[in-house]
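During the no-cost extension, the postdoctoral fellow (Dr. R.K.) reprocessed legacy sequence entries with the updated structure-token encoder. One reprocessed record is reproduced below for audit purposes.
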Amino acid sequence: MTTTSKEPVLVVLQMTGGNDYLNTVIPYSDGMYYDYRPTVGVAEENVIPIDSTVGLHPEMRPFKDAYDEGDLAIIHGVGYANSPRSHFRSMDIWHTCEPDTLGTEGWLGKVVRELDPNKENVVTAVSMGPSMFRALSVPGVPVACVDNLDSYGLMTNVEEAKQRERLLERYKRLYGPAVGSGPVMDFLGQTGLDALAGADILKIAPQRYESSVEYAETSIGRKLRSIAQIHMADLGTRVFYVDQGSYDSHSNQEGMHDKLLADMSRGAQDFFDDLKAHDAADNVIMLIFSEFGRRTYDNGSGTDHGAAGAVFMLGDAVAGGQYSTYPSIKREDLEQGDPVPNLDFRGVYSTIIEDWLRLDANPIVGGTFEKPRFLN
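Re-encoded structure tokens follow.
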């Protein structure tokens, strides 16, 4: 299972819940921003400027450092037309690239199928969490699900049996409706065995890992540390998926959003510092996205569901800078009170698929879209 070649690796960090674009990449030079947000607006003196018009949230100092080093791309106004402003539907669209119909296959599951068509490596993709993310779900494509990497090597026989039972039940719920009634059990049996084999392989990752980097003791920090362990165990994993949240900031936004952004940006910094210390960063990029942004106007305590958002790309191979344009926040240009997306998210995916993973994006994202050139 060990590989010595440095194949390109993608880490996806999902900011679940709808991250507030305007309080993350802040149009601090625009007085309308402060008119719209008397409660949750970030004071101009606290913004971390990246140019004369926009800046980062004050808790995102690690991202400013990465930006100055040329390792962070900020992609403005990302989304899709006619946003439903629903968490479930919007996330489904981002996961399947199907904005007009209900998608059945995840975009990254299709990527994994192309990367490993013969299913030679059951840990080509790793999903960090208690269940698989929809973006990785394609019937017949094995994905290793990892809830707590450190506990794998410490399980008793009874705990392992319970873990296997839970894992198989997740696969049954996930795949049962898609497969049909005939070969369901055979299919589930093989899929479950693939997943369990992946879990067994990943047990060795913590044993191969030593590092002087001290990750913050946060949920996202622990997950990213586990991803670093697996990546540096050289098991041939090409795609990692992890989430953080919830960013659903309808109320009490200020403290909650501050902490989430601080944890996310610190976790990403620790992750890349760890990889660089082990000469393992040059073939890794990280995509950071949320299913939508939030309303231009605050609601007195937080912000409600919106449309356009920002996407971040991190890594040595990233051509740092800003891409696309910040959507207008003039009242006459808003749609249902929201900045309007001006770059289709499938164009971001296309850049990753074609220019990083060296695959044909069209059948994966369902068409041809404008590609921001954020890779060196």
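The radius of gyration is 20 Å. Confidence is low (pLDDT under 50) at residues 153-158, 178-189. The remaining legacy entries will be reprocessed before the final report is submitted.
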